[in-house]
Design brief:
Radius of gyration: 23 Å
Strand content: 5-15%
Mean pLDDT: 82
Order of helices and strands: HHHHHHHHHHHHHEEHHEEHHHEEHHE
Helix content: 40-55%
Number of strands: 7
Shape: globular
Structural class: mainly alpha
Largest sheet: 3 strands, antiparallel
Oligomer: single chain
Number of helices: 20
Length: 411
Amino acid sequence: MKRYIIYILLAFASGATAQETIRTDSLPDSIAADVLLDIDYRLMEHTMQWLDTTECDAVHEVMQLPDSVYMERLCSLPYVIEMPYNPLIKRYIEIYVNERPKQVARLKRLSEYYFPIFEDALHRHGLPEELKYLPVIESGLFAQAHSPMGAAGLWQFMPSTAKGYGLEVNSLVDERLDPLKSTEAACKFLRHLYNIYQDWNLAIAAYNCGPGNVNKAIHRANGERDFWSIFPFLPKETRSYLPLFIAANYAMNFADEHNICPAERIFPIATDTIATDKRQHLLQVATVLDIDIKELRRLNPQYQLDVLPGGKIYALCLPQEKTAVYIAMEDSVVAYKADSLINNRRKQIELAQKTSADGYSVNGITYYKIKEGDTLSGIAKKFRCSVAQLQRWNSLKTTNIRAGKTLKIHR
């Protein structure tokens, strides 16, 4: 999976193993201080507006613990995936628990909502439960996280990978943001990667940079199939990925020992999911059922324009106490201000759905792959824009186009 790039400078002593030579003193101070900037980007904006640690009386303090404590704690975790310890992993742990305690507080609270979803899917697929910490480093448990490369959701799927695992991605619905469906897809993808390598460390590395890059690293390491042996041949970001994953496991399991309190609760204690094929707007649901629209959006982040398109079964997540009310009042929900919220926007909605077959949308931009026989004027008509706009959006000097290339359509 593509994530924001973390640049780590690593020095390897001649003849030494990777674990022996990863040293924090090889990290320039500026990089060591900023090593989790990508996590900051996804967490800080959504942390301070509702961070509250008043439920806990403990006062966080920076702890300088001996290596033996970190090693013993990691070894005590009842895991299938190996959790080694070295100076780089120690540095990541200290960044989490000593320098970013408010982020850990937020992650701990969000985990109460998301981890049961992850655990259920991982158990059904026979995967190690500790993989539930991958979304901690992928998205900071922020379901609507988007990367500049186009990855999205808790598990940071790229559009092409998401569609390959059956997720709907268009201007209306992006199931990469759906916690349940994206987790199901992630489990299938992780199982596929493990089947390739029969090693969870390599599978996790491949989740970050793709099997192609891991295979190249194995080849350059003379066929060695161990993460720490191929470490120097992996992309820079992936070198930090597994150590960061291990540090996240530590921070989430031992936050209490570092006096880190959970943040304020943001999700309802109990939720339930309704299956419906009725076209409706989240504002209709929120108004008729008396639910805060912001809460409803947090529970249903996959509906990018607040619209459930209908025509097939879609999931609507509600606070548990509202599910029976919705079932009894669904007709009233669908009828409430239907003309202004749904009926008068039908063509816009249908156009947004169409991009599922003709392309995919990221952050309001549709990406369309040119097919044999396509013309620029035909594509412009399909997406209700002008040829001049297509040329401007894609820096085209002529109207000549070639099959296989991708066009950007700004909507």
